[in-house]
Specification:
It contains 14 helices and 12 strands. It has 2 domains: 189 residues, Class I glutamine amidotransferase (GATase) domain (Rossmann fold, 3-Layer(aba) Sandwich); 116 residues, Arc Repressor Mutant, subunit A (Orthogonal Bundle).
């Protein structure tokens, strides 16, 4: 699996830009990876852009951009990002790569990490990179994507899928979630949260969260569950009941539970567990508190409960997680006998 270089050079992210690229999605890697800093303030990634045929690249907006680097830039990439393009032509119609794009992809070295944003997944699938693997794309395209690429295990309901060296995201803003997940996977929660604060976006939306919620915004004058969530975040160290959460919004438990799922895509219980896991991760990375204290502060009560929840969510014990991700520490080298970070942020030995 690709990992950031810590001695000779920074981890290089190369964005493969195609005609019809969506400017917002083209900018995501620059905003997220480009803002990632070590605790000492040093950039952690180099981010470059290339295109199969250098020169003017038309965007889906009313302006072109000039890309000076050709496909040779892919040879130096540790991570290649393919954002969405609205002019993929034969890729989306027939599932095949046009000759210039196919030739461009041959420059990528073995072992590179592949990332797609939105319908950029069509390029990865047409190149055979997703055969037999789980993946996602924009919810509007998932049925078409599955018909065109039956060998891909398409998950239409998630924000992103991390399959180790190949990662795919759903539409548009979920590319932010995926890139933050990659930063978290490479350098830990503290670095990813710092990038999120700089970008004024939520620090963590789990990849398994629903990518499309039919009623994401409340009706005018309709109560929401926002206050209850804020109240709960300040009390993660104690047992919280559905009745208490519903009382913060003056709702019945039944109404609160339905409204909560409509707004977040998960149940209140699932949300609470995710927030507690996130709190435990932060404490393991940023403090020297003993595991039993972290278990209490995160609301899991006992070290055994914390271990069980962390194992379920991340595939790792608190001790191994702390050893792997300490603020300022480098990501482990696969095969060095410590740990490796896998799909969904899991850490494996």
């Amino acid at each position: 699996m690709s990992r950031p270089e810590t001695t000779e050079r920074r981890h290089r992210v190369v964005v493969l830009t195609l005609h019809g690229v969506i400017p917002f999605e083209l900018g995501i890697p620059y905003r997220i990876f480009g803002k990632a800093r070590s605790p000492e303030g040093h950039p952690l990634y180099d981010v470059l852009t290339c295109t199969p045929e250098p020169g003017a690249v038309q965007t889906d907006a009313d302006f072109p951009i000039t890309v000076e680097r050709g496909p040779e830039a892919l040879a130096g990439a540790d991570t290649i990002v393919v954002p969405a393009s609205l002019e993929l032509g034969p890729v989306m119609e027939e599932g095949r790569l046009p000759a210039p794009l196919a030739e461009a992809l041959t420059h990528a070295r073995p072992g590179v990490r592949w990332v797609s944003i939105c319908t950029g997944s069509y390029v990865l699938a047409a190149a055979g990179l997703l055969d037999g693997r789980p993946a996602t794309t924009h919810w509007h395209n998932t049925d078409h994507f599955q018909r065109l690429f039956p060998a891909v295990a398409v998950d239409p309901d998630v924000l992103f899928v991390d399959d180790g060296d190949v990662l795919t995201s759903a539409g548009v803003a979920s590319g932010v979630d995926l890139c933050l997940h990659i930063v978290r996977r490479d350098h830990g929660t503290a670095v990813a949260n710092d990038v999120a604060r700089r970008s004024v976006v939520p620090p963590h939306r789990d990849g398994g969260q629903a990518q499309y919620i039919r009623r994401p915004l409340p009706e005018p004058q309709q109560a929401t569950t926002t206050a209850a969530r804020a109240w709960a975040l300040g009390r993660l160290d104690r047992a919280l009941t559905l009745r208490e959460l519903a009382a913060q919004e003056a709702m019945s438990v039944r109404t609160f539970t339905r409204r909560f799922r409509e707004e977040t895509g998960v149940s209140p219980g699932q949300w609470l567990v995710a927030q507690r896991v996130e709190r435990a991760r932060q404490l393991l990375e940023d403090t020297d508190l003993p595991v039993d204290r972290i278990a209490r502060d995160a609301g899991f009560g006992t070290p055994a409960s914390l271990r069980q929840r962390l194992q379920t969510a991340l595939g790792v014990s608190p001790t191994v997680y702390r050893r792997t991700f300490r603020t300022g520490g480098a990501a482990p080298v696969p095969g060095d006998g410590t740990a490796d970070v896998s799909r969904d942020g899991r850490v494996r030995r």
